Amino acid sequence: MPELPEVETVRAGVEKHVVGRTVATAAVLNPRAVRRDLAGPDGFAAAMAGRTFLRAERRGKYLWFTLGCPPDVGSDAPTEALLAHLGMSGQMLVLPPETPLSPHVRARFTFTDGGPDLRFTDQRTFGHLMLVEMCLPDDLSRAVPEPIVHIAPDPLEDAFDPKVFTERLLGKKTQVKRALLDQSLISGIGNIYADEALWRAKLHWARPTDTLKRSEISRLLDAVCDVLTEALKAGGTSFDALYVNVNGESGYFDRSLNAYGREGEPCGRCATLIRRESFMNRSSYSCPRCQK
DNA sequence: ACTCCCCCCTGTTAGC
DNA sequence: TGCTAACAGGGGGGAG
After folding, report:
1. Where would I find the beta strands (DSSP E) of chain A?
2. CB atoms < 10 A from the CB of A169, how many?
3. Which is catalytic among the residues A2, A5, A153, A155?
4. Looking at strand C, which nucleotides approach a protein CB closer than 7 A?
5. Residue A256, Cα to own-chain centre: how many angstroms?
6. Among A24-28, A188-192, A267-271, A275-279, which is the least confidently predicted range?
7. pLDDT in tens, A188-230
8. How far apart are CA A155 and CA A217, in angstroms?
9. ∠A60-A39-A42 over CA atoms, to 5°?
């Protein structure tokens, strides 16, 4: 599942292959891929033609490409971006134009240089694309696409402030894992890395946030940063491939997981068997001894 | 205003 | 063997 490390891997890969190139044609093969774009499939496709990919950026699990305008559009037009979320199964494939379309290609961009296509491929269609305006959030920290101004900074970006996070966390009346998954509080963490960070910090997922000590929050943040950084390092080895392929389930970081998906296997610290508990109609994995 | 939960979707797998 | 049901889970939006 694409969480921050996987999305960053995709961002870096796409940056390498499409920045500086100009879209010749855009085609939406499944309208659901642009369901959040008010212009609809035809409007989206028409508006993307002639645009130049300028920069590839990311916050949490969202990535976007700032766009240059065609020459006939005034340079004072607001900065726009192609915003993407990979959902559960989204991929950004860079492939030669003659490559046959796989059944799950949802949107396709060809380029004026005749080079490789960009194909948004998404088996389960939880991901989406939209053409949006950039805007500055209230704290003026960093320009982001308008639809994601409510998404908090992720722990690996400069705009992330541990003090702000700590105070907001302490003010919440919820469980610590719910808070980690709340993208408006801290972004980029999904079910896998939440369990991994909680295991490293020796905290149980159901711990009420308003009972956390500041030292525990600090430990948790360190664990979050460590696990995301290590996973990013492991996932970053595929940058040189011609296409950028992300499949969280077969990712390189699998071997390094200490809790997630390891029900019945021994804890790496104390050898107690890892347990699985139901949580929000999903699974939470933890060590019964280390994470009381 | 805040928290919680359902639902969107499809391929794989477990179970009867 | 063949079918159904559970499961994977990000996040919007509505209910409470």
Report:
1. 23-28, 52-59, 62-68, 80-85, 90-95, 105-111, 117-122, 128-135, 144-145, 275-279, 282-286
2. 22
3. A2
4. 7-12
5. 20
6. A275-279
7. 999 999 999 999 999 999 999 999 999 999 999 999 999 999 9
8. 13
9. 110
- The CA–CA distances, whole Å, from A58 to A55, A200, A283 equal 10, 26, 27
Q: Straight-line distance from CA A6 to C1' B16, in Å?
A: 38
Angle at A50 between CA A49 and CA A55, to 5 degrees: 105
Q: How many angstroms from the chain centroid is the CA of residue A150?
A: 15
Query: How far from each other are the two terminal CA atoms of chain A, in whole angstroms?
Result: 27
> Which residues contact residue A278 at a Cβ distance below 8 angstroms, ignoring those fewer than 6 apart?
A284
SS3 breakdown of chain A: % helix, strand, coil, rounded to 5? 30, 25, 45
Amino acid at A164: V
Question: Mean per-residue pLDDT for A223-239?
Answer: 79
In window 36-55 of A, residues with CB < 7 A from nucleic chain B are: none
Question: What burial class does residue A234 get, using C-beta atoms within 10 Å of its C-beta: 0-12 exposed, 13-18 middle, 19+ buried?
Answer: middle
